[in-house]
Design goal:
- This protein is an alpha/beta fold.
- Helix content is 13%, strand content 32%.
- The protein is built from 2 helices and 8 strands; from the N terminus they run E-E-E-E-E-H-E-E-E-H.
- It has helices at residues 95-101, 124-134; strands spanning 23-30, 41-46, 58-62, 68-74, 77-83, 106-110, 115-117, 120-121.
- The strands form 2 sheets. Strands 1, 4, 7 and 8 form a 4-stranded mixed beta sheet that branches.
- The protein starts with 22 loop residues before the first strand and ends with a helix.
- The model has no long low-confidence stretch (mean pLDDT 92).
């Protein structure tokens, strides 16, 4: 988050820890009836608006034929997840789209070197948002 060096400091000792142990999020993509959705984009984006345009905090994958998905190499932190009904999941990075999706997205947090399971459901509200911005 930054280092502040006081004025007039002649010597300053800094220690840093670099940890390459990332996290994984798995789950199922489901339609409103609770049935698996195949091939739908799954989007993970930081819940911190300042990090949303940084590629490290944005991940996407597609649900397999059984609706299962897996996102690996996730940096520990808090995220918003959504199933995106359009073909271009990167649309979610648009600040105007994200402003609308924030209320509909599922929140998930992951710790260092952990796994989380989160099923996601496609809602009519998300479909309306996607259709609005696809035009």
């Amino acid at each position: 988050s930054g280092i502040t060096v006081p004025e007039g400091a002649s010597i300053m000792q800094v220690a840093a820890t670099i940890d390459f142990r990332s996290s994984t999020i798995t789950g199922r993509a489901l339609n409103e009836g609770g049935n698996p959705m195949a091939g739908v984009p799954v989007v993970l984006v930081s819940s911190d608006p300042k990090k949303r345009t940084i590629d490290r905090y944005f991940k996407t994958t597609f649900a397999d034929s059984n609706g299962n998905y897996s996102l690996s190499s996730v940096i520990p932190g808090s995220y918003l997840m959504v199933l995106w009904p359009e073909s271009d999941p990167y649309t979610v990075q648009d600040p105007d789209v994200m402003e609308q999706l924030e209320k509909q997205a599922t929140r998930v947090s992951v710790e260092r070197a952990s796994s989380a399971t989160q099923d996601l459901k496609m809602t009519s509200e998300i479909r309306v948002i996607a259709q609005t911005f696809a035009q």
